[in-house]
Amino acid sequence: MRDTPRNFAQDRDICMPEAVAEELTVLGLPADAILTQTQSGTSKPRLREQTHAAQIRGIFGGPTFFVGDAMFWGNDRLDDALACAAALQSSPHSLHTG
Predict the structure, then answer these.
(1) Is the dihedral angle over the CA atoms 47, 49, 55, 59 positive or is it negative?
(2) Three-state secondary-structure class, residue 73
(3) Per-residue pLDDT reduced to its tens digit, 46-95
């Protein structure tokens, strides 16, 4: 989620490989290897599958969080999603998500 403030608060382009590489490097991840893998032919079918699954589930933007079947959309709903998850963890039958 480091890219969300970069995009919305700092109005920086997060779609460019250089921006992604910068964030991956900050996280201590192998940026070159990851970016190379994302451009490989094997990653694209998986991306299509994940996109289709997201569409079926009703995801239309990000960030989107699920607690059970309850969907929370937008960075401003993260606290609500965490509270819902905590409530569900403390009393698994207290949340009706149907």
Answers:
(1) negative
(2) strand
(3) 889 999 999 999 998 888 999 999 999 988 899 999 999 999 888 766 55
Which amino acid belongs to residue 32? Answer: D
If you ran DSSP here, which 8-state letter would residue 50 be given? Answer: H
Residue 19, amino acid: A
pTM for the predicted model, two decimal places:
0.58
Burial class (CB in 10 A: 0-12, 13-18, 19+), 39: exposed
Grouping H, G, I as helix, E, B as strand and the rest as coil, residue 21 is helix
| β-pair partners for 65 | 72
Picking from 7, 13, 23, the residue whose alpha carbon sits closest to that of residue 63 is: 7
Q: Cβ distance 46 to 38 under 8 Å?
A: no
